[in-house]
Amino acid sequence: MPNDGECRGTKRARGAEAGGGETSGPLSDFISWQQQKTECSHMRQKIVQRVQEQAQTCLNEIRKKSGQQPTTDAGLQEDMRQALEIKMTQTELEAVKILEKIHTEMGSKILPQALVQCVGEPKFWQVALDGVLTLSSSSPNNHKNVPTAGGSQNSITRRLVEDGFACVSRCDKSGESELVAKLHAGAKQLHAMGLPPTFTTCYDAAWQLMQLHHDRTMKPNVPATHRRVGDVLCWCIPRGGAGFAPHSDRDPADVEASFETGGLGKMHTTWLALSECGASDGCLAVIPARFDPGYKPGAVAEATTSKSDGDGAAALWACLDTKESVQNIRALPLRQGEAVVFSHRLIHWAMRSDLQGESGPRVSLSWTSANPSFEAPYLVDGCEEESTGMPSPTLRIALACAQSLVYWQRFGVPLGLTAGSWYHALFQAYKNSESYFAPDYQKIVRKAFAEAVKVEGDGNDSDAEEAMLDVALQGDMVAMDDFSGDEDDEDDEDGGDDDDDDDDDEDDVQ
Question: Residue ranges under compositional bias (Acidic residues) (predicted)?
Answer without folding.
Answer: 483-510
